[in-house]
TrEMBL record:
Name of the protein in its database record: Amine oxidase domain-containing protein
Organism, scientific name: Apiospora hydei
Domain called Amine oxidase: residue spans: 3-53
Pfam families on file: Amino_oxidase
Length: 106
């Protein structure tokens, strides 16, 4: 019997490491709340990630896309992620980071 669990990023987690967690291995694709950038640790993350991966696989099976569906995997990790890198292009669709001092005079 289980009572549920969730994932949470450890100290030192970077976007590159998270992308490696999401990246497929040949024909094996991963989805779940742990692979969601916006909703990691939440039920919505599992739903949205599972749906996105499922849609991608169906498109590949129906030859509706020119891509192979492979996700970027970083072989060399840089160890840090600058705040400016948290963008939709890097798999981070929403800002979940505090922006202290933005728009204020020092």
């Amino acid at each position: 019997m289980t009572f549920g669990s969730y994932s949470n990023w450890p100290v030192g987690m970077t976007l590159e490491k998270h992308q490696n967690l999401r990246a497929n291995v040949n024909r094996l694709y991963f989805a779940g709340e742990a692979t969601s950038a916006q909703y990691y640790g939440f039920l919505q993350g599992a739903w949205f990630e599972g749906r996105a991966v499922g849609e991608n696989v169906v498109q590949m099976m129906n030859n509706q896309t020119n891509s192979t569906g492979n996700m970027t995997r970083y072989e060399v990790l840089h160890g840090t992620t600058a705040l400016v890198e948290y963008t939709p292009a890097n798999g981070w669709p929403a800002s979940t980071l505090p922006n202290f001092g933005a728009g204020s005079e020092a």
